[in-house]
Amino acid sequence: MKTDRSHALFTRASELLPGGVNSPVRAFKSVGGEPFFVQRAGGPYLHDVDGNRYIDYVGSWGPMIAGHAHPKVLAAVERTMRDGLSFGVPNALEVTMAEAITSIVPSCEMVRMVNSGTEATLSAIRVARGATGRNRIVKFEGCYHGHGDSFLVKAGSGALTLGLPNSPGVPSALADLTLTIPYNDFDAATELFEKAGSDIAGLIIEPIVGNANCILPRDGYLQHLRDLCTKHGALLIFDEVMTGFRVALGGAQQRYGITPDLSTFGKIIGGGMPVGAYGGRRDLMSQVAPAGPIYQAGTLSGNPVAMAAGLATLELIREPGFHDALERSTHALCDGLESAARDAGVTFHTVRAPGMFGLYFREGPIETFEDAKGSDSARFNRFFHAMLERGVYLAPSAFEAGFVSSAHGEAEIAATVEAARAAFAEVAT
Ligand code: PMP
């Protein structure tokens, strides 16, 4: 596969950008080699600057649930941008977006738009602390909630991939306020709340973990956390930056029937533009400035073009049957991969939720972060490159979930499974 142009760009980039990239996992550090540079994207495909085409299972890390460059999303952006790119004054699209989010996610009685998932989670814990008058927060080992100081404690995603779960630059005075427990461990949560419950402002969780590969909640686990938070007066925060609008229209909270106090979103609601949001109970969100004293602001928040892209995407995914089809495609892909691995004699397991999946080079079931870490990442790295060679782009890390979009049709899934047959055979020994 020709990669001369990407190589030349990466050489230039490496002089000027840390690691040659603007976000760590893009650099292929853990899988080895160099990233390709994208020229354009359409539907399920990325096209690189050397003319190679890849079936894309990263989808810009989640936003492109309707496929790349969807004509309806592009049309909304084009229409909106003609009226100006940013006003710093309220715009009707912000109201439409707030109506869309609150009607799709009933636990969100009010929302505030921000510009990234990181901003959303930072703001949500500020509300939790401000509203409860407590300082401690609880997170889970291997979960990632953006790069805010309080979250870079036993963090997932790139921090995990690169072996930097506790970042330098985070004052210990702040990190010490973040308590971590293992995901899916009922007793650890109970014990922590029994010990420290009256100091805990909130517990933040990826209801389905997508930043330590992919792990589903055990039966009753999310309800257990809901009950503990209620009992101890702490707020339950669902970080649905990844799962929101994906695993069900109303996110993981709809899929599992749990009502969090606060939720955070990103990715899909921006349709590919930089967007995040946090929302929740009216009595909590009413404490955010200028309605209340908890300060949070943003020059570009509620940007009209970003709202237009997000609203067009929400319109697409509100079509009846959208998530059922996404779930069927995810199963078809994962079943196909498992059968290809079996035929090649490779120990392999998948974890699935509608539109997202985890690939494991080990036996299942996968229920804990320890289980996830037990995957053979050296073999994953070889598989990643064997797939890339054959025109399939998986997340360049053994610790990231993959994403399926509505643009991945039967043909792309069949081509992916075909590529996987050869790739599994290559990594079998
Ligand atoms: N929370 C979760 C669950 C995420 O997956 C991510 C990003 N992958 C974030 C927060 C941070 O979002 P952003 O990268 O937009 O800041």
UniProtKB/TrEMBL annotation:
<comment type="similarity">
    <text>Belongs to the class-III pyridoxal-phosphate-dependent aminotransferase family. HemL subfamily.</text>
</comment>
<protein>
    <recommendedName>
        <fullName>Glutamate-1-semialdehyde 2,1-aminomutase</fullName>
        <ecNumber>5.4.3.8</ecNumber>
    </recommendedName>
</protein>
<keyword id="KW-0413">Isomerase</keyword>
<comment type="subunit">
    <text>Homodimer.</text>
</comment>
<dbReference type="InterPro" id="IPR049704">
    <property type="entry name" value="Aminotrans_3_PPA_site"/>
</dbReference>
<dbReference type="InterPro" id="IPR015422">
    <property type="entry name" value="PyrdxlP-dep_Trfase_small"/>
</dbReference>
<dbReference type="InterPro" id="IPR015424">
    <property type="entry name" value="PyrdxlP-dep_Trfase"/>
</dbReference>
<dbReference type="InterPro" id="IPR015421">
    <property type="entry name" value="PyrdxlP-dep_Trfase_major"/>
</dbReference>
<keyword id="KW-0627">Porphyrin biosynthesis</keyword>
<dbReference type="InterPro" id="IPR004639">
    <property type="entry name" value="4pyrrol_synth_GluAld_NH2Trfase"/>
</dbReference>
<keyword id="KW-0663">Pyridoxal phosphate</keyword>
<keyword id="KW-0963">Cytoplasm</keyword>
<feature type="modified residue" description="N6-(pyridoxal phosphate)lysine">
    <location>
        <position position="267"/>
    </location>
</feature>
<dbReference type="InterPro" id="IPR005814">
    <property type="entry name" value="Aminotrans_3"/>
</dbReference>
<comment type="pathway">
    <text>Porphyrin-containing compound metabolism; protoporphyrin-IX biosynthesis; 5-aminolevulinate from L-glutamyl-tRNA(Glu): step 2/2.</text>
</comment>
<dbReference type="Pfam" id="PF00202">
    <property type="entry name" value="Aminotran_3"/>
</dbReference>
<dbReference type="GO" id="GO:0042286">
    <property type="term" value="F:glutamate-1-semialdehyde 2,1-aminomutase activity"/>
</dbReference>
